[in-house]
Automatic annotation (TrEMBL):
Organism: Sinorhizobium chiapasense
Protein name: Glutamine synthetase
Subunit text: Homooctamer and homotetramer.
Residue intervals of the GS catalytic domain: 89-346
Cofactor(s) named in the record: Mg(2+)
Domain GS beta-grasp: 4-86
Entry similarity comment: Belongs to the glutamine synthetase family.
SUPFAM superfamilies hit by this protein: Glutamine synthetase, N-terminal domain (SSF54368), Glutamine synthetase/guanido kinase (SSF55931)
Free-text function comment from the UniProt entry: Catalyzes the ATP-dependent biosynthesis of glutamine from glutamate and ammonia.
Length: 346
């Protein structure tokens, strides 16, 4: 028997953006545990905005499991928060009731800033560094500093060792801003991995005295880019059947549901989706081939392939909840008729 360190991780009840929380319990297993072997656990919901002090127990239900490469015999356990009966999802549980479909593939491009001493890493104490231009995909100390790349590489290695499906990393347009991409088949699988990668990044940067700023427009109304979390998506039907008529019907459905999408695409998005810095205004839906100023960018490959493949919704922001984003995308897609259903309630 081996003693495993099980880190139960969950989303708290803060709004509009939940925080990640985690605590450890030690349990003995013959071998690395399976999800089914992990017990329910509890926590004090009155400390996380999830319960009143009088009756404060909330239940943690394990829903995904990853090896924790940083800890000896470590296990990362993604959990849903349940009511004391262990069966009813807590109101803060944004995962339990989302649409899911393993034929629906999602690629999230998570952008974020490193922050130190209340400003982006690499910004001088007063004023600003040289304007944007050389930082995106840049190299060299003057562009990326001396520590950011080390953290980004370490984070990538930890995530890969945990089995998280990273697809890439790059330095972003603003100084101190970076991106990682995560791809997954099924909304829950992809979104669990985004949350776990966020957790691992925040935990990793503790020892550097650096925080992650997830806000979509941390530098306000300036010429500095905001942070998005573009959502690339495809269903089996989009990849295998597609066609121009279906694509146009799909875009019409996205236009109809504009407000439903914006409602779950992350807070303060009106500060970011202004029409500047490769964004489309939040209150106007548009799409275009290879158009980085559109709400939905249509890759060249999509058109060249007979309107088949994936699309990129550029509106979700860096603080958006990937469960809710993926689910809304599937919800809108499910309103467009096809031969056969593309989404089902999980
Ligand atoms: P860009 O910065 O040019 O918008 P990235 O390379 O950062 O593009 O991100 C593209 C994303 O698209 C990746 O996360 C990738 O996993 C995702 N992707 C690629 N093919 C598909 C597909 N068929 N369905 C869904 N997502 C996809
Ligand atoms: Mn990208
Ligand atoms: Mn980007
Ligand atoms: Mn993108």
């Amino acid at each position: 028997m081996t003693k495993y360190k099980l880190e139960y991780i969950w989303l708290d009840g803060y709004t509009p953006v939940p925080n990640l929380r985690g605590k450890t319990q030690i349990k003995e297993f013959d071998a690395f545990p399976t999800l089914e072997q992990l017990p329910l656990w509890g926590f004090d919901g009155s400390s996380t905005m999830q319960a009143e002090g009088r009756s404060s127990d909330c239940v943690l239900k394990p829903v995904a499991i990853y090896p924790d490469p940083v800890r000896t015999n470590g296990v990362l356990v993604m959990c849903e928060v349940m009511m004391p009966d262990g069966k009813t999802p807590h109101p803060s549980n944004s995962r339990a009731t989302i649409l899911d479909d393993e034929g629906a593939w999602f690629g999230f491009e998570q952008e974020y800033f490193f922050y130190k001493d209340g400003r982006p890493l690499g910004f001088p104490e007063h004023g600003y560094p040289a304007p944007q231009g050389p930082y995106y995909t840049g190299v060299g100390y003057k562009n990326v500093g001396d520590i950011a790349r080390q953290i980004v590489e370490e984070h990538l290695d930890i995530c890969l060792a945990a089995g998280i499906n990273h697809e890439g990393i790059n330095a972003e347009v603003a100084k101190g801003q970076w991106e990682f991409q995560i791809f997954g088949k099924g909304s829950k699988k992809a979104a669990d991995e985004v949350w776990m990668a966020r957790y691992l990044l925040q935990r990793l940067t503790e020892k550097y005295g650096i925080d992650i700023e997830w806000h979509c427009k941390p530098l306000g109304d300036t010429d500095w880019n905001g942070s998005g979390m573009h959502c690339n998506f495809s269903t089996a039907y989009m990849r295998e059947v597609g066609g121009k008529d279906y694509f146009e019907a799909l875009m019409a459905a996205f236009e109809t549901n504009l407000h439903e999408h914006i409602a779950v695409y992350g807070p303060d998005n009106h500060l970011r989706l202004t029409g500047k810095h490769e964004t489309a205004p939040w209150n106007k839906f548009s799409y275009g081939v290879a158009d980085r100023g559109a709400s939905i960018r249509v890759p060249h490959s999509f058109v060249n392939n007979g309107y088949k493949g994936y699309l990129e919704d550029r509106r979700p922001n860096s603080q958006g909840c990937p469960y809710q984003i993926a689910s809304q995308v599937l919800k809108t897609i499910s309103t467009v008729p096809t031969e056969g259903s593309v989404a089902k309630v999980a």
